[in-house]
């Protein structure tokens, strides 16, 4: 049994498996960069005319895929750094320009020897695995229990490895949320106190709106003091990867992995093969392998050819996995895609994994930073995957936000609903959540409390 467990861990952490997962996790633009770097390192690779056109600045071949469906490319190429800043809820700081001539992953991994000398040897692989699992912002958005199961570690060991990564520069790397990213920076500043901590945990929406007066009133501190604390937090970096190359030698764009068409009840998924340079060995090198099987040159070229074959298999596996995932996810969300319901239905990573017989980590990596092109728009695949909120009716966070808005719009403005009253209204709609949960989501949705929603009588 013990030997079986050891063998299982070796499989989990094998270089081939990690490479395959990396190829699956990379967004399309990152995969382009990975293949170009692969071609530069492998003398046997022949890149077809597509890559030559792209290298010379002809991006039309990249975009033909999307033009076939929309006649426009305006939403298919968006700098991911800009998109990340626009989507950040608090808009804490400007990302700035690239300052480092290395990728974010390279920079973080270079620091590992500084901390690994204080940890058992097995942590080296785990820390690298966690770094490879970070998204384009430098955040870790995979549950630790899933990472632990895939790394062959306990949850406690995975947590310790994450803490080790979070101790590296830039401060905030490995954070699991915006709040944690800012708190990691706060504890290294001279302004770490209960007020600054409270602002990050409870008042980021107000900070984003510049409502320092209410923050000052709620925390019962002078306005000038609250303003100083807010300025400190606004100076923090909400995206640790800002200032780094996202990929070696190439700008990062959001390019859809697939286009989707729905005709009647039929969903058709077109994988974006045109966005990738083709990887193939040069025939003359294959001939040398046959002619010089016993020489060092022949052995070297044979090894390089095996690398090409593994890469081709990884690319085929990526395409097959993504198509299965996209078809299944969109089939569940067909009513939303057709505009028949206002929000996607709840659909969890665990449910997708069970239905498709994949590991949850595979699904989590597969939907990370992936986009589909549908009805003239480039849409993140994660938009269609979210867990159920509370008990009763199948409602996710987006649908809950719609319910909140409708309830608040219809309430008596002279006597607005308390959080407990909101809970009872939701319960009458078969959405069972606790009052505390109502309060948490109300704050997350940036909805003021009843006292601040109340309108004075004239």
From TrEMBL:
**Which domain of life does the UniProt lineage start with?**
Bacteria
RNA polymerase sigma factor 54 core-binding domain location, by residue? 98-280
Statement: the UniProt record of this protein carries the keyword Transport: no
Residues in RNA polymerase sigma factor 54 DNA-binding domain copies: 300-455
Q: Which UniProt keywords apply?
A: DNA-binding, DNA-directed RNA polymerase, Nucleotidyltransferase, Sigma factor, Transcription, Transcription regulation, Transferase
Q: Which is an annotated Pfam family here?
A: Sigma54_AID
- What residue range is the signal peptide? none
Q: Which family does it belong to?
A: Belongs to the sigma-54 factor family.
Listed name of the protein? RNA polymerase factor sigma-54
**Organism expressing this protein natively:** Agathobaculum ammoniilyticum
